Amino acid sequence: MKSEILLFNGKKVDEREINFSHLKRGFLYGDGIFETMISINKKIFRFDEHWNRMVYGARVCNLEVPDKKLIKKLIVDNLNKGVCYIRLNLWRKKPDKISPERQRETNFFIIIRYFKPYPEKFYKDGMVCGISEKIRKNSKSVISKIKSLNFLENVILKIEAEEESTDDMIVLDNYGYISEGSVSNIFFVKNNVIYTPSLECGCLEGITRKVVFEICEKENIKIKEGCFKIDFLNDCDEVFLTNTLMGIMPIREVKGYFKSKSFRVTQYLIKKYLKILEGLK
After folding, report:
1. N or C: which end of the chain has fewer CB within 10 A?
2. Is domain 120-278 classified as CATH 3.30.360.10?
């Protein structure tokens, strides 16, 4: 496989073949959605769940969705063995002005490349996080429930993390409840019970978040959703993040609120999660 494969509306292209007229509305207005997936040995992990979330986002944005079988075949036909990163973008074709005037026709763009994992030291030693002072999640906004092409909030969070010399930032919602990481869901462990913010706190319903719920149900581990103020972290035993690319990531410190070198429950969940991934091999 080439270092990167690009597919535009079903056709394999070179990046120089994509011009501004193709990208215009996505670039000017961020009028689109996306999904990020991984594959192992040409098998896409949780494709249906990713697809269903994209369909929901398309419904919110009034976007036409391409044929599911076509998209899956295009991806699979261009995958290679090993672990691959897959990005699927979907955006409105026209018009040029801000109002879409009921136009629903879309472009889609698929990027496939070999997956570069997070540094191993993060899984061994845990990440250090801060609490964002710049971004708050609007728990009442429909935008918080979809993966919009406008990723500016997430970019600002990454800039803030660099400014604060942390690996990531944790975001609160507009009521001061913990919502999520910059690109991840967040979980807490206290007295062998796992807690995570409710979707009412403005967090995205992550695919790996669902996998954690499945593991807990199968392993008889108590897991509870709720609304948690930042002080909840003070006496937690463990904290971890989840998303498709990082999987399950331990946190060793949330500056000013939490610090621990114990990842016992987190490592147990990682072990179970990796076993699920091994089923793709």
Report:
1. C
2. no
Spans of the chain below 50 pLDDT:
none
Cβ neighbours of residue 67 closer than 8 Å, sequence gap 6 or more = none
Tens of pLDDT, residue by residue over 27-45, are: 999 999 999 999 999 999 9
User: How far apart are alpha carbons 92 and 209 in whole angstroms?
Assistant: 29
Q: Is 102 exposed, middle or buried (0-12, 13-18, 19+ CB in 10 A)?
A: exposed
The rounded distance, in Å, linking the Cα atoms of 206 and 211 is: 9
CATH of domain 4-114: 3.30.470.10
- Taking each helix axis from N to C end, the angle separating 47-61 and 68-77, rounded to the nearest 10 degrees, works out to 130
Give the model's pLDDT for residue 251: 98
What are the sequence ranges of the domains in the chain?
A: 4-114, 120-278
Non-local (6+) Cβ contacts of 52 within 8 A are none
Distance of CA 9 to the CA centre of its chain: 23
**Angstrom distance (rounded) from CA 58 to CA 51:** 10
Q: What SS3 class is residue 201?
A: helix
Distance CA 232, CA 14 (A): 50
- The confidence score (pLDDT) of residue 241 equals 98
pLDDT at 278: 87
The pLDDT value recorded for residue 210 is 98
Which residues are CB-contacts of 107 (< 8 A; sequence separation ≥ 6)?
8, 9, 22, 26, 90, 91, 92, 93
Count CB-CB contacts under 10 A for residue 117: 13
- Do the beta carbons of residue 74 and residue 7 sit within 8 Å? yes
